[in-house]
Amino acid sequence: EGKTKITVVDTSGVHTMMVRLCRCPDAHTPDKQLFEIGLFLASFTRPKTVFTFALLDNFILDNLECGTSAMNYYSKLKRITSSVFPHLVPDRYRELMRVARQWRQLKLLKWNGFCHDKRDPKDGELVLFCPACPQPGINVVVPADDDGPTSWLYTRSLVMDGNFKAEHLHPTNPEDEVWLTDGKCFMATRAQYHAHLAMAKDSTQRSECNNHRAVNQANASRHKLEATGIGGCACTRHGCFVPNSMVDFQKGERRQMNMDYALCNALVHNMDGLRRALTFYDVNCQYNKHLLRRVDESPHLSIPPEMNIIPGIGLWHVHGHQDKCFVWFASNFIPGAAQIDGEIMETLWAPLNIISLSARGMSTPHRQECLDYQMNDCNFMKMIRMGLFLSQKYKEAKIGVQESSEAFEKLNDAADPYIIEQWEAEEKAAQDSRMTDPAAMDVYDVRLRKARSRKEVEIDLLRASVSRTGERRQLGAATWLASGITIEEMQIALAMDVRRMGRHPTETQTLEIGRRRVRLQHSIDEF
Q: 281 - beta bridge partners?
């Protein structure tokens, strides 16, 4: 009678139904008929299993918010279908994984205007980016002369970081992998990225600053892992991932070739006409030294010729560096950087790590699509809240500007005008030279004179007593004073220890205190 037995997977469970398709002369094909009533086919030639649109939306939302894997989700469906005999429910776990990938791809194509457009998306065109960051031709028009006092409006701020929880095992059958959105979202195009890695020089560069974990320890690869983590770029002010700028690590974040590719891709995304970029990276004091040389040596890397990259280090990580790195790279000393900490990417890894564990054993394309979808959802959630967020920040900034202006005026009025003029000249010279000579920023550093030690003072007293002429020499005066100070220190230390023991000391403590009192008394008698 033209009926077909089809398994329907819905949020209410797994059902087996008899379906009769329309066979009129002008009827649509079976796949389109099922699509029209909200059913997604597991196969398009002889469909035997379909998934409802509601179920696919529900699964993807569960995956985004709760990190639910396809296996756990389908296991739940089987128990919803039959709480007594879930093992007898038809197994459509593999079909669910395949269909969910197709559903994600269709959602991205629809949301980004490719529904009725046969044009293939370009790299990074299937995802969202920050609406507040300057993007010429989209939300800003760059003037011919952008070097004025408002030049910070036309500066792209980027933060770079790595996430070593997003690991990936070697795929079992790499020859069977099918790529759906390779390079169209946040993860870089695989073939081009691997071509860059194959030609780039892997030079082990020891850090000249403090021993940073991201510089000195990641060269030990883990053989069971295809990727030891991921890294990339996001906008510093609002925390939105930059499309086509996320890459996999093979040996760790220290391999600068990985982050070079991510940064170069980020610097060309909607940046036509922008000539300045402020980059924050945990190890920028080491990473930025030879960046331009590495870019020139690679045929797969490029930076716009007029681009001026200003390096910075986040305000939390910079305190783990040498003292000089604070004034060289902290955002407090970069004009136009505003009140940013440069650490926002640390907070972006938390929602991404929700699915990192379940994505660890996926095929390479499937893992990439899950990470891309999660990052796109993160950007979307920031976009819909950005109006309220920026309004609140603007109100706080108005109050902060007023308070800081009043404090500055008080300090400025109390200072000597000549010294102020000298400071302004030093500041201008330092800012003009910071790119070629970071040491010029040392004018911002606190200048402290180290106090002389007690031994140095004692030596000077001894020399002075010996060199005196015309009076009786006092050879033991300096040593006598030093002995007196030592006795006072012993008295204070003993009193503190007695107070710390309380009213009920042990026999051992009482004996130790008695011995110290005897030694102290002998020192006093000798003094």
A: 160
3-state secondary structure of 263: helix
Neighbours of 337 (CB within 10 A): 20
Identify the residue whose tokens are 């007196």. 484
42 half-sphere exposure, CB direction, 13 A CA radius: 16
Other CB atoms within 10 Å distance of the CB of residue 247:
28
Q: pLDDT by residue for the chain (527 residues), tens digit each?
A: 568 899 999 999 999 999 888 888 888 888 899 999 999 999 888 889 999 999 999 999 999 999 899 999 999 999 999 999 999 999 999 999 999 999 999 999 999 988 887 788 999 999 999 999 999 999 888 887 767 777 888 999 999 999 988 999 998 888 889 999 999 999 999 999 999 998 887 665 666 676 565 544 444 456 788 899 999 999 999 999 999 999 999 875 456 889 999 999 999 999 988 989 999 999 988 888 889 999 998 999 999 988 999 999 999 998 888 888 899 999 989 988 888 888 999 899 988 988 888 899 899 999 999 999 999 999 999 999 999 999 999 999 999 999 999 999 999 999 999 999 999 999 999 988 888 888 888 888 877 777 777 777 767 766 666 555 555 545 466 677 778 888 888 899 989 988 888 888 888 888 888 888 888 888 888 87
The answer to whether residues 352 and 245 touch, using CB atoms and an 8 Å cutoff, is no
Q: Give the Cα separation of 225 and 218 in Å (integer).
A: 13
The whole-angstrom separation of Cα 13 and Cα 10 is: 5
